[in-house]
Amino acid sequence: MAVVALAIQNVGYSYPNGTPALRNIHLTIMAGQRVAIVGANGSGKSTLLHHLNGLLLPQVGQVQVGPWRVAPNTLRVVRNALGLVFQNPDDQLFMPSVWEDVTFGPKNQGLSLEVQHQRAIAALEAVGFNPDDYAQRIPQALSGGEKKRVAIAGVLAMQPSILALDEPSAQLDPRSRRQLIHLLDRLSLTQIIATHDLDLALDLCDRTVVLSQGEIVYDGSTAAVMGDPTFLEQYALEAPLSSQRPYCLRSDGPVTNL
């Protein structure tokens, strides 16, 4: 039987200056799904993600993670169930070593040193790192791709049932981006991925939600929406590079279609 991992009902939120950020958001995500949230700048992607674990609380409607409604008195259990990876890993990595960053969550969950150790090793291995090589490294000295993976490891060490990622491929070079896609593809937990990277969405997610001015304008097949350049252009999005016709440079003139 399908289990609801996340339910968002009629959520509305406005910024302090009165600008609407989210309007009438209804969204249900089942356990095990991997869902892309896409939209132009200012469409509400990050604001929506920040509602999922209570960084922001809805002014209208409600968010439910598993059996728990997101509210001030449930934040601890909700944040254990839904791990959020920020767009900039420097906002998430603040301890002197990788080991201390990855064990920070389990430590605050009140787990024993032995369990913290087990969780950290499993999380580092899950993101493709040898704990012996990375445990004592300084997070701030890592590459952008390595920082992103350590940030994910820190969330995985808390063993959430849902992983939410805000622009996970931002500022990554092509090799690091591909490593990240392979990593996320291997993880079996529910994933919600807010991204401008439509090729990443096409690679990873069967389902895509398109936001525009704080409203859902599409919720359905990723392949279908990515194959509709007219619709994407209407909402200031470009079709994935992998679905566009290839181009070549002519020696005697401009770029032309092959």
Structural class: alpha/beta
CATH architecture label: 3-Layer(aba) Sandwich
Please report the number of helical segments: 10
> H/E series, N to C?
EEEHEEHEHHHHEHEHEEHHEE
Spell out the CATH superfamily. Answer: P-loop containing nucleotide triphosphate hydrolases
Rg over CA atoms: 19 Å
Main sheet characteristics: 6 strands, mixed
Name the helicity range.
25-40%
Uncertain ranges:
247-251, 253-258
| CATH fold label | Rossmann fold
The total count of strands amounts to 12
Strand order of the largest sheet: 6-7-8-3-9-10
Mean pLDDT: 92
Strand content: 25-35%
Level-1 CATH class name: Alpha Beta
**Tally of domains:** 1
Shape: globular
Distance between the termini: 48 Å
Fold blueprint:
Elements: E1 4-14, E2 20-30, E3 34-38, H1 45-52, E4 60-65, E5 68-69, H2 75-81, E6 82-85, H3 98-108, H4 113-126, H5 131-134, H6 144-156, E7 162-166, H7 174-186, E8 190-194, H8 198-204, E9 207-212, E10 215-221, H9 222-226, H10 229-234, E11 247-249, E12 255-257
Parallel strand pairs: 3-8, 3-9, 6-7, 7-8
Antiparallel strand pairs: 1-2, 1-4, 4-5, 9-10, 11-12
